[in-house]
Amino acid sequence: MSRFTGVRTMERPDVAAIPIELPPAAPASPGVPTGYDWYVVATLFAVSVLGYVDRVILSFLVEPIKADLALSDKQVGLVVGTAFAVLYVIGGIFLARVLDGRRRMPVLAACIIVWSAGTLVSGLAGGFALLFVARMLVGVGEAGLNPAAVSIISDRFDATRVQRPLGLFTTGLYVGGGLAMMGGGKLLAELAARPPQQLPLVGVLEGWRMVFVLLAIPGVVLAVLLLATVRDRQRASPDAPAPAHGGAWRFVRANAALVTLLATSVVAWSMNNYGLLNWYPAMLMRSHGMTAQDVAWTYGPAFLLGGMAGCLGAAPVQRALGRRFGMVLSPFALTLGCMATLAVTTFAGPLMPDRGSAVAFAAINMFVSAMSVTSVFILIVAVAPPRMRALFTGFYMALVNLTGGAFGSVLVGALTDNVLGAERLNVSLSVMAAVFGPLATVLMLFAIRIVRTRGIAAAG
Description:
Layout: E1 15-17, H1 35-60, H2 62-69, H3 73-101, H4 104-124, H5 128-142, H6 145-156, H7 163-192, E2 197-199, E3 203-205, H8 207-215, H9 217-229, H10 245-254, H11 256-288, H12 292-325, H13 330-348, H14 355-383, H15 389-420, H16 425-454, E4 457-459
Antiparallel strand pairs: 1-4, 2-3
Helix pairs in contact: 1-4, 1-6, 1-7, 1-9, 3-5, 3-15, 4-5, 4-8, 4-9, 6-15, 7-8, 7-12, 7-14, 11-14, 11-15, 11-16, 12-13, 12-14, 13-14, 13-16, 15-16
C-alpha cells in the first residue's frame, strides 16, 4: 500500500507505480514568481479571452446567420461544432509537438493571426461552404493556445504554485464567453438598428457580419504585443530533446484500462457539454421568447460569473478533497462530483418553465463545468514531464473536440431537424444530458476504482 490514502501501487517488473501528486520543484525549477511572471499570465489571459470570444460568438449569432444564409439546424451544428473541431484536433496534436520542442511565442503569435483571419472571413461568408472553411481556420489557429499556455505557465511557476495561475488563465474561457454574449448582443443590437455598412473592398455588410469584422482586429494587436513583450523562460533541461511519442505510448499501454475509462468518460462529458454550450442561447430565444439582447444581459453574466467562480474555486476545493482522499484521488474525486452534478443540472435546465430558472441553471452548469476543466489542467501539469505538457494538453483538447466538439452540436441539431422539431430544442438538450451525463459519471467511477486498487503506472 502506498503512502497515499486508499491507493495501491502496482507490483509489476516492467512498470513503476507513480502517484499523481504535485511533485517538489527540481533544482532548476522556477522560484518565487516575479511581477513579470504574472504579466505573462495576464497576457495569456487576454489571449484566452479573445480566443474564446472569437470561438463562441457564432453560437450567439445563430439566429441572424441562419436567416441570412438560409441554413438548417444541422448545418448550423456543422459550422458551430464540426468545422471548428476537425482542424482543432489535427492542428492541436501537431502544434503541441512543435511547442514542446521550439520557441513558443512566435508559434502562438502565428496561431492568433490565423484564427483572427478566420474570424474576418466568417463575416464575409456568403454561404455555408465559406463559413465552414472560415471556422476551420479559427479551429486550427486556436489549437495552439491551450498547449502553449499550459507549457509557458508551468515553466514559470513551480508545481506548488501553479494552480492559481492556471485557474486565472482558464477563467479567460468564461470571461471571453460572457463578453461575447454581452458585448456581442449590444453590438449586434446597435448595428441592426443601422442600415447595412459599406466597407472598402468587401462591400455592404449586415449587422452580424460587422461583429465578426470588428472582432478580427484585436488579434493582430495581441500577436504583436506577445512578440514584443513576452519572452520564453529557459526550461529546466534546455539541452534535452522533446520526448518522443513512444514515451507517451508506453504510459498508455501500462495503464490501458484506466486510460480507456478516462477517455470514454471525457468523451461522454464533452458530447453533453458542447451541445449545451453551443445551443443554450438559441434555446432561450426559442423556448422563452428572449431576444438576442435579453440573452446577452442574462445568460451572459451567468456564463461569465459562473465560469470564473468555478475556475478560481477548483484549487481550494481540490486541496480540501486532498485532505480527505489524498492527493492521488482528489482530482478524480473532484471530476466525479462535477460530472454527477452536471448529469442532473444539464438535464433540468433546458426544461425549466421560466427564463429566470433556466438562466440560474446555466450559471450552475458553468460553475461546475469550469471547475472540472481547471482540475484537468492541474492534473496534466502534475503528471506530465515539463517537455511533454504541451503534448498531453494537446491530446486532451483533441479528444474532447474530436468527439463533443465535432458531433455534440450536430447531434442536437439532427434531433431538432429530424425528430423533435425546431421548437423543441430544449427537449433535445435534455435528451443529450439524459444519455451522456450518467454515462460519463459511471465511467469516471470505474476509473477511480482502478486508481484505488491498482495505482497508476509509468513505463519504466
